[in-house]
Amino acid sequence: MTTQDTKVEKEAGDLSRRDFLGLLGKGAACAGALVGAGSALASAGGGAVSALGGVGPSFQQDDAQYAEAVKNPPKIPNYNWTQHKWAFGVDADRCIGCLRCVEACKMENSVQMDRNHTRTWVERYVYLEGSDHAHVDSIHDIKNVVPGSKETRFKFDNRYKDEKVTKEFFVAKLCNQCEKPSCVQVCPTGATYKAVDGPVLIDTKYCIGCQYCVQACPYGARSLNEARGTAEKCNWCYHRITKGMQPACVEVCPTGTRIFGDRTDPESPVSQFIRNNKVSVLKPDMGNMPNVFYKGIDKEVL
Amino acid sequence: MEADVFHHIAPFVGFAYPNETEVPWSELIVIYPYITGLVAGAFVVSSLHHVFGMERFAPISKFALLASLCFMFFAPTPLLFHLGQPTRALNAVLTPHWTSAMAAFGYVAGFYIVLLLLETWFSFRADIVAMSKSRTGIMQKVYQVLTLGSDDVSPRALHTDHTIARRLAMIGIPGACGLHGYVGFLFGSLKTREWWSSDLMPVIFLLSAVGSGVGLLIVIYVIASWWRKTPTNNGAMEGLLYLLWTGIVVVVVIEALEMVQMLYKAREGIEGVFALIQGPITNSMIIQWGGSFLALVITSIMMLYNTKGKRLVFWLFISGLLMMVGVLAMRWNVVIGGQELSKTMRGLMTYHPEVFGRESLFTVATLFTAPFVVLYLAQKLLPTVWEADPEEHEDKVFDIHKAI
Ligand code: SF4
Ligand code: SF4
Fold it and tell me: Looking at the complex, does the CB of residue B95 fall below 8 Å from at least one CB of chain A?
């Protein structure tokens, strides 16, 4: 156990586990969330609990903890990255737009707590009667922020209740951990790189914060973490998957929209998902070869 | 929300990805290609005399070189102010990741600064030696150091100086074009943004750079002459007029071509491009095209009527200024405009620059004033006497003081 773990366990006592679960899933998929909460808790020191009451801090991990985590990264025994090939599936037909995944990710990964920065998000596509184009909105629309939550909690508003909706669906988005990542191509320092097992990672000790990668990602998956001055994006919870766990968003998803697994194992959920469905990827014309596979998306999905 | 210097949350309409609402590249990245452009333009003018022996540019060639050097010192500074981790800036040089266009920046800029320094030294060495003899006290010491121990001013030594300076300038021309074409490549090579990803981008950047650099030279030459109470040289002014006119014509045509191509191809999302032009960047588009057209009209009329003397100085000054402003607006339209159009092509952000702070208009103004101040000081150190001979062409010489 690293120093960080010990320290963090002590601090985790400040946070009531019940409160945390309430934040995560309103009881949805509790058992899964509990496991997932373990490491989220680990990074949820110093007052994060108040996020519930709406006066949350910007980060779930305080600066000292972050520094410690960077200095002393947890050792992962028995993990061999040449033996895995991670992939992600999104079954858009199942998504109910509850946004538990977004909140869980922000807790788990200390993402900035505002509606303009996120590692994963869900888009709502709505066709109104007589229109051939969808209206699209997501968590950065102020109307989808829970009032009083200081942009820490999100809920799609009911803006179409008086309209005739002909078709509606949700699409979850996250970094595609592209096979040919344009973010890696443009990074001048090599701080962002493609791991052998699939995910594209960022060395936050080396990143200079030029944001060229933010420009280059066709999917809008990247942002700048202002407080740290470095780039920020989803890494499929690399710290969890290398310990045999699921990414936090997959863990909390109550409907099984998000599917994760190892493609080297033909029986893994994601291998089955890809095999048993007609899947597509986003913006194939970009040539990035995404590793997030979608089922049930529509021509309007951007 | 964390109070900090980086927040550029832009209001949006339509649908943009959540992360896009924070505009990554601010006005500092507008001024960065602008300054490098001025460097490239001024350098080209100085080379016209040094390399091609065009005598009409002799009076301003050293001045142009000095201006180029002073602006080059500040070309990398906007980037430093922009980085999230400025203290790590050297990472990109120590471990360059060569697939990145940006990785070469440190080398390109470093190479160019060294080249300019060398050429400046060889061009001014005779002056430095002269001053190390004539000055007294501390300044004499300074000039003695600047001679780097080489105080031979025999005709042979001077000839060597000249030859070396010329060869350096010959390397410098492709260097300047490379430097600026490269900056265009930084933007044009990004497939993500329809507004940027154009094969013409490096060419447009380069040509507009030369145009704005000529504009800058005209402006500072006229102002410096006025300041020093010396007349501007008519031959040089005419040469600058020809250059500026050519520059504007080519820039306007190529930019129009690019625009027409984009609109004609009308790929998916073209409505977004229209909305961008009619929305967040309308004003800067008007400044860009209005400025260029006005400058084109004025310079064309002067070319037609062979304007000379007082009128030439005044209107060329105005055209140079218009060109500088037009190109600045163009940089804004490219850099900020490109980010205001969402990667979804279905949404628009509106970027509002901050006035004070690390990435702000104030920083931009400071960084852009600095080269002028340094140029002023450099002129004190290495005076570039206008190399024209007033007596000889009395009729052609115009005294700016009578005009203003
Ligand atoms: S989705 Fe974007 S950030 Fe993720 S790997 Fe691809 S290019 Fe990089
Ligand atoms: S912000 Fe960091 S990760 Fe992104 S391109 Fe720059 S150095 Fe690389």
Answer: yes
